[in-house]
Each structure stands twice: as structure tokens, then as C-alpha cells.
Specification:
This protein has a single domain, classed as TIM Barrel. By secondary structure, the protein is an alpha/beta fold. It has 11 helices and 8 strands. Helix content is 49%, strand content 16%.
């Protein structure tokens, strides 16, 4: 049983902006994507404002907030620039993620344990501004301990290893990763931290993750935008929502 009610679906709309930016101009508009997600039962909008602005742009954030009442989860690097932007826009939540300029996508979890001293002032200022802080981490006890010490109320477990194991056909590794995420989700609850999960989730692999009773939210983006090319964003989000509900 989900300890916080229905498993929420946050939809990451970054890659609608990626397509827009490939040609310049305003089409397709990520704000329209946010409105569609709201209309078909999505529970939140996730957007990652990267240092190089490769997809979401600064002005997109206020436009998204104005266009929908869904909570905005701003993914951000632990930098002074991104902190100031978060404080200015005051999203519902700010998820601190690792970021390297050359990476195509986020390649792993934040080392919250190793970066404790750097993260303390950022987490404190976000929290003091009424922004719900989340840390995007690997499903490891050391990282959970760090999140607790930092006072982060939410963690999002990186599910990339689980997703990659399934794509590689390594059933044993996939099962081990799933079990690890389940154990750490339970431990997070024991610590008073709300666990979320995301990265690499698809129609084919979402159900075992969604079945973990302690998880409160999944954040899914790239796959849904890719499916939307073929079936439309409404259908893609609805199908993911159905699979998540079936798993519960």
C-alpha cells in the first residue's frame, strides 16, 4: 500500500524544448506540453534548467507556472546561479541533480555524502524560501544518511542502472537493482524521507518500480516525449498512468 496515496506521475518536458531548440523559434512549445499533461491527469511538471540552456530556457519557467496549476519540480545543479533562479521563481520543489556540461543526460546520482558542506547552504536557502528540496541520488544507504543530515524531505532514486540492466537482458542485475531500490525506499520512509524514483523508465519496465509501495512519485520524461512522436502526448501520458495504476 502506498503510504501517501496514489503514486504520482511527474512528467519531464525537457525534450519538447530540445526539439524546439533544434530549429530555434517557439515550436513545439513546452508550455503547451505542460498544459496537456495537466489535462490528462499528470500530477506534476518537471523541468531541468541546465547551465548551457540546451532545452528549457529561463523564460520557460514562469510561462509554465502561469499556464498550469500543477506543481513545478525544478531540476537544478548545485550552483549559485541556479539557486538564485530557484529563489526567484519559487517552484513547488527543487531537485538537486549532478550536472556535467558534456553529458547527454544525467548519468548518475548526486554524491550528497561527498558534497555535504557545499550542499548545506543551498538546501538551507531553498528550504527557508518554502521550496521543497529533493536530492537525486543513487539508492544507497550512505546517500540516504546524507540526505537526512542535510534535512532534505525528499529523495529521488536514480533508476538508470535498473533500466540499463533490462535493456541489456541482464535479468539478475535488473532484479538486484530493483531489490536495492525497494530496500532503500523502505529505509527512506523509516527515516521520514519521501522517496521518488526516475530515469530510463518505460512502458516495459515501469511496473516493477511502480509496485514498490513506499514510492510516492515517478518522474518520467524522455520516453514519454519519444512516444508522443508516434501516438501524441495525451495518449503517452495516459498509458503510463494506466501502467502505474495497474502496478498498485
Amino acid at each position: 500500500m502506498n503510504q501517501t496515496g496514489k503514486l504520482r506521475l511527474g512528467v519531464n518536458i525537457d525534450h519538447v524544448a530540445t526539439i524546439r531548440n533544434a530549429r530555434g523559434g517557439d515550436h513545439p512549445d513546452p508550455v503547451r506540453a505542460a498544459a496537456i499533461v495537466a489535462s490528462v491527469g499528470g500530477d506534476g511538471i518537471t523541468a531541468h534548467l541546465r547551465e548551457d540552456r540546451r532545452h528549457i530556457r529561463d523564460e520557460d519557467l514562469s510561462r509554465i507556472q502561469a499556464a498550469t496549476n500543477l506543481p513545478l519540480n525544478l531540476e537544478m545543479a548545485a550552483t549559485e546561479e541556479m539557486l538564485e533562479i530557484a529563489l526567484r521563481h519559487k517552484p513547488h520543489a527543487a531537485c538537486i541533480v549532478p550536472e556535467k556540461r558534456e553529458e547527454r543526460t544525467t548519468e548518475g546520482g548526486l554524491d550528497a555524502a561527498g558534497q555535504h558542506n557545499r550542499l548545506v547552504p543551498i538546501v538551507t536557502r531553498l528550504r527557508d524560501a518554502g521550496i521543497r528540496v529533493s536530492l537525486f541520488i543513487e539508492a544507497e544507504e550512505r546517500q540516504l544518511d546524507a540526505a537526512r543530515l542535510l534535512g532534505a524531505p525528499v529523495v529521488e532514486f536514480h533508476t538508470g542502472e535498473y533500466a540499463h540492466a533490462g535493456l541489456d537482458g541482464d535479468a539478475d542485475h535488473e532484479a538486484k537493482e530493483l531489490a536495492r531500490i525497494a530496500r532503500m525506499s523502505a529505509l527512506a520512509r523509516e527515516m521520514g524521507i519521501e522517496p521518488h524514483a526516475g530515469h530510463g523508465l518505460t512502458y516495459d519496465n515501469v511496473k516493477p518500480i511502480a509496485a514498490i509501495p513506499e514510492l510516492a512519485e515517478l518522474n518520467i520524461g524522455h520516453y514519454l516525449v519519444g512516444e508522443a512522436v508516434f501516438v501524441g502526448l495525451e495518449s503517452a501520458v495516459r498509458r503510463m498512468r494506466e501502467l502505474m495504476d495497474e502496478a498498485r
